Amino acid sequence: xxxxxxxxxxxxxxxxxxxxxxxxxxLATVRYVAVHGESWCGLVMQEAGLAMSKSTFxxxxxxxxxxxxxxxxxxxxxxxxxxRKEDLDSRFPGLMDAIIDAEVPARQA
Length: 109
Known about the structure:
Blueprint: H1 14-21, H2 24-36, E1 39-40, H3 41-47, H4 54-67, E2 70-75, E3 78-83, H5 85-91, H6 95-101
Antiparallel strand pairs: 1-3, 2-3
Helix pairs in contact: 1-4
């Protein structure tokens, strides 16, 4: 059973949120669910172009959940991720809009 506790909005820590969003895979996940709403995690991995194992994606999702960026709902054998935009906006107004809308720099070789 998953024992990750999602923090209350009042307990959000900006450094932890920014650290969670610093990884390009986690940022792609957040941007995907910001546009598409609550999404099946398998679809997020596929459509966001995240070439990784399910366990690696679960690790990234756990970091986002522990920071308070997303919430995860289990239905049967499937997990669904959703951005906690209202909670984030209540604590840090405009932060998620700026992050979601920011241009992603090209990767350096």
